[in-house]
Each structure stands twice: as C-alpha cells, then as structure tokens.
Write a structure and sequence with these properties.
Blueprint (H helix, E strand, L loop, with lengths): L3 E3 L1 H11 L6 H13 L2 E2 L2 H7 L5 H8 L11 H17 L4 H9 L2 H11 L2 E3 L15 H7 L5 E3 L1 H7 L7
Parallel strand pairs: 1-2, 1-3, 3-4
C-alpha cells in the first residue's frame, strides 16, 4: 500500500480555500476514511504545525491524532532525514538562513517519511526557482534527492485516490 504523507499545508489550504467544511464536508469525511485505512498519514512535526492554532481544524486534527495524523519517526525515517539534511546543507551551503528554516520546519520530515516508506510527499508548495530569497521547497527536494521521492499537490492526490465528493 502506498502512503500519502501530507504536509500541514494540505489541511490548512483545504480549511481556508479549497475544501471548507461548510462547502465541501465530503472532503473531510473522505479524509477520515483514508486516515482509517492508513493510506494518508502525517508526520509528527507536520502535526505540530497544524495544531499550533486554535480553531475547528486543530480540534479535528487532535481528535484524529492516533489515526495517522501524528506519526513518529522510525529509525529508517530518521536515517532518511539525516541524508536529506546533508543534501540540503551541501546544496544550499551559501544560504544558511534557508537551511535553518528548513531544519525548524516539517518539510524534511514529510519527505523522509515518504522516502523511508516508498510513499508520496503531498504538499501545497509549488516548485520554485532556486534563488537566495526563496525557501527550500518540498517539490524541488523530492526531485533532487536520490532515489527521487514522488511529490503531488492535494488535487493530484485526490485524482490518484479517485476522490468523489458528488455524494
């Protein structure tokens, strides 16, 4: 079974933009089912990012914490993360502020979980041109590391998993 490792941006953007609970409650029910089946999971660090606020999404996530929204890092994930950090430190060595930002966030953990489980990293980040002012992006790292990690945005994940909210 392929696991789709979601970044906090998937839930945050869905809450605010694409799948508000008032307009598309079916999205949240569908997500419940995918959490129950283990197809969608979230690393602990991403869980901490999404539960830092104080709104209905925080409660929704906390109610599902033990259903795949707060996954600890195995030894394999930690090894994949160390490899990823080494890559980032080498490739972006002239942008120390970006390296520090990357190490504080959850992006590396999303990729590490996907790499260790041969899963897919899912994020709302876009591929960015590499320059000194942009942050290190999940899609770029997924493409740069070996072996590559598949990356999708939320809509790509919904397409692959054949989500149908018409009912």
């Amino acid at each position: 079974m392929t696991i789709y490792w979601i970044d906090s941006s998937v839930l945050i953007q869905s809450r605010h933009k694409y799948h508000t609970k008032e307009r598309v409650p079916q999205f949240w029910s569908w997500l419940d089912g995918k959490l129950d089946s283990g197809v969608i999971q979230m690393p602990h660090r991403a869980y901490r990012e999404v539960t830092a606020g104080n709104d209905w999404l925080v409660k929704w996530c906390k109610d599902r914490r033990d259903r795949g929204l707060d996954v600890s890092s195995s030894a394999e994930v930690q090894s994949a993360y160390r490899q990823l950090v080494a890559h980032v430190e080498h490739k972006y060595r002239h942008a120390q502020h970006q390296i520090r930002e990357f190490q504080r966030g959850a992006d590396g953990w999303v990729i590490a979980h996907a790499k260790a489980t041969r899963g897919i990293a899912v994020s709302e980040e876009d591929r960015a041109r590499k320059n000194a002012t942009s942050s290190i992006k999940i899609p770029n790292l997924c493409r740069e590391i070996q072996p590559r990690v598949r990356w999708l945005d939320t809509f790509g994940m919904l397409d692959e998993l054949e989500a149908d909210f018409s009912r």
